Amino acid sequence: MAEGSDDIQALITLMGRLPGLGPRSARRIVLQLIRKRSGQMTQLAQLLDRVATNSRECLTCGNITDSDQCAICSDPRRDTGEICVVEDVADLWALERGNSFRGRYHVLGGTLSALDEIGPEDLGIPALLERIENQNVREVILALNATVDGQTTAHYIADILNDMGVAVTGLAHGVPIGGELDYLDDGTISAALNARRKL
Amino acid sequence: MAEGSDDIQALITLMGRLPGLGPRSARRIVLQLIRKRSGQMTQLAQLLDRVATNSRECLTCGNITDSDQCAICSDPRRDTGEICVVEDVADLWALERGNSFRGRYHVLGGTLSALDEIGPEDLGIPALLERIENQNVREVILALNATVDGQTTAHYIADILNDMGVAVTGLAHGVPIGGELDYLDDGTISAALNARRKL
User: Fold this and answer.
1) Pairing between strand B167-170 and B82-86?
2) Does residue B1 surpass a pLDDT of 70?
3) Alpha helices, H only, B100-147
């Protein structure tokens, strides 16, 4: 046993399974934590325990929160007439960091997939439709990833909503702010060219 | 507040300060943990708490352990006649993974540094000398890093031990196993050339 104790070894293994980490980076992290065991490490253990105990999904939108309704769904200043549909909570957080959307969200928790047998019910699409009917929603923004599954899901939802008479929009494709043309993929460049606008 | 709750945000900040992680990777890790909050996350919190509570330095060698003596110092099959001196616990673990040294260790916890005012007492060098005198040590291997501070510390210890009549050795420099000459720095290549051996 090279690494101190069984617990330390188990900790390194567990850490090494986190996304983006491996055995080497996990060892480095665990050693630094042990060096700061009375401060940083204890604090981290307590926070992890608290977040594990308190976290749950917002009953309305599926965002991660520590109460029945997330901060966004319980904020009266956020427009209930606009719902932005995202694949997962990471996307919701990313849009919130953008700080320009003032409506509400709906987290699908994945995309439709015939291969993985994920249907509309698994993604809470009936719940989304119910929400749209009951809350007088004017516009639904489908902010799904530009992958095949993401776009299939977007089309599926758009078809239903168009029949319901709700405005459906998608995020614009184009050159990222600060992006260099030379480094962009061909698909993005032609999308940006097709959607060119008058200056 | 984009990220769920104050606790989640504090957790992301704390995670993002670990070596090799930043805000983006910390967010990804925390989201994955929350997804597995009843399993992986709770387990991680418990392990961190246990390791933080139980970890301490081995009273003999300075290795991280959960008792007064580490597994190496309390293993009667490990040769007490050889002591390998390392800068920190990460180096000890690395040598143990190599699985070819069967003696004992001594962790300095740093290197001599005039700039940072780190003297021999701060590194427990008197304790090392006492250990060498009392335990009938035949050979001391100085496995310190090939940095200026590491080599200064090695020379300081070697001078004292030579006066005490103990054999002092250092790790060989040369081409790493599996290494390609083209990618090696000039210093390593000339060291390997100077220490060339008959085949």
Assistant:
1) unpaired
2) no
3) 125-134
Task: Specify the residue for token string 């427009």.
Answer: A79
Q: Which of B37, B46, B9, B30 is nearest to A46 (CA)?
A: B46
Which residue in A has a C-alpha nearest to residue B14's C-alpha? A44
Q: How many residues does chain B have?
A: 199
**Which positions in chain A touch B34 (Cβ < 8 Å)?**
51-52, 55, 64, 89
Contact A66, B3 (CB under 8 A): no
Burial code (b: 16+ CB inside 10 Å, e: under 16) for A68-102 equals: eebbbbeeeeeeeebbbbbbbbbbbbebbeeeebe
Name the one residue in this structure whose structure tokens are 């046993």: A1
Residue B186 lies in a domain: no
B57: its two tokens: 């330095």
Q: What pLDDT, in 10s, does the model give residues B69-107?
A: 999 999 999 999 999 999 999 999 999 988 889 999 999
| B47 and B136 co-located in one domain | no
Q: Calculate mean pLDDT across residues A46-58.
A: 93
Q: Please, is B116 exposed, middle or buried when counting C-beta atoms within 10 Å of its C-beta (0-12, 13-18, 19+)?
A: exposed
A84 touches chain B (CB under 8 A): no
- Rounded distance, CA A2 to CA A9, Å? 9
Is there a domain that residue B137 lies in? yes
- Condensed to tens digits (0 to 9), the pLDDT of residues A138-170 reads 999 999 988 899 999 999 999 999 999 899 999
- Provide the ipTM: 0.84
Average pLDDT, integer, range B116-131: 90
Number of CB pairs, chain A paired with chain B, less than 8 A apart: 175
Interfacial B residues in 99-128 facing A (CB < 8 Å): none
Residue A2: the pLDDT is 63
Cα angle B36, B16, A25 (rounded to 5 degrees) comes to 80
Q: Is B71 on the interface with A (CB under 8 A)?
A: yes
Domain that holds residue A17: 6-54
Amino acid at position A48, single letter: L
How many domains is chain A built from? Answer: 2
